[in-house]
Amino acid sequence: MGVVVLGGGVSGLSCAIRLREAGHAVQLWARELSPHTTSDVAAAIWYPYLASPKERVLRWGQRTLEVLHTLADRPETGVHMVRGTEVFTEPVRDPWWAPSVPGFRRATPGELPPGYTEGYAFEVPVIEMPRYLPFLQERFRALGGHLLQREVHALEEAWSVAPTVVNCTGLGARALVGDEALVPIRGEVLRVSPSPTGQFLLDDSETRGMAYVIPRATDCILGGTAEVGVDSLVPSASQAEGILARCRRLLPESTPLNVVEHKIGLRPGRPSVRLEAEQRADRRVVHNYGHGGAGVTLSWGCAEEVCALVEAGR
Ligand SMILES: Cc1cc2nc3c(=O)[nH]c(=O)nc-3n(C[C@H](O)[C@H](O)[C@H](O)COP(=O)(O)OP(=O)(O)OC[C@H]3O[C@@H](n4cnc5c(N)ncnc54)[C@H](O)[C@@H]3O)c2cc1C
């Protein structure tokens, strides 16, 4: 069956691959391709951040963790398993997603930076998106898929070439299908090189501000910010200063941080991920957007559910 996948970020590419593997004739159309998508900006650590509903997120996240684990340490994928800690200054319970992560445990006092009293220790994939997205594109092409840079203004444009459309347009779905529940959640990150650490460190404190340090093969991503409803893509010097100051809380004093890049992305925020099929006469659209701060974390689980919904409509 012919399928057009709209969107060339992590959601669209993962769906296109699974659909092609299932034997469908697949074209992927995207207004922007890597390195110009939001997915390119992602930090990107496996972590279910700003995405709902919990039960589906757990299932999608767990499946994605399994797939990313199998891709880890094949150098061409850009995926690595990395250990680290999420740290707190007050008592906390285990997080709701803990059952998804094999080996999750409480951190020992010796694992905590000065000033922190509690923590979780775990190992999860870190995905170097500027390498991972081209890897996904190559995998899709090698499976015989066709990838085109093309913007659409209505689903009908895609239905004119295939009866089934998969809508992975991220924040673009707001205009494409008129979904006003979608809002930008602006995020800023700094890329530093060399990496100041081999382990990730996360502090999601609401009072002191979010900080994360995500080491990759040759560099490290420092974050972050999450500004709901803000859609500016202009870098902010004061936000960058704030990120550096907050990340320094997590690192040994006087750690050198050499900033080589400053990136901004608009997370596709939505009260819940929209993953559902919509039938319009003999045409079908499967929506898969609104993954907030967890599009990478949920990508394979969502792609497999999308594939099942496409098959169910045959
Ligand atoms: C600073 C920051 C840090 C993040 N960190 C993490 C992290 O650590 N872990 C994690 O899992 N997630 C993280 N995220 C979230 C993650 O980046 C997103 O959830 C994810 O990229 C969404 O992917 P997507 O493919 O759905 O959308 P996008 O990557 O936005 O892709 C949408 C695609 O649709 C195309 N498109 C849009 N409209 C149209 C149209 N009308 N016609 C044709 N094509 C169209 C676009 O051009 C693009 O190709 C982070 C995000 C930011 C900004």
TrEMBL record:
It comes from Stigmatella aurantiaca. Transmembrane segments: none annotated. This is D-amino-acid oxidase. It comes from the Bacteria. D-dopa binds at Y212, R267, G293. PANTHER family: D-AMINO ACID OXIDASE, D-ASPARTATE OXIDASE. GO terms for molecular function: D-amino-acid oxidase activity; FAD binding. GO terms for cellular component: cytoplasm. Its EC number is 1.4.3.3. Belongs to the DAMOX/DASOX family. Its cofactor is FAD.
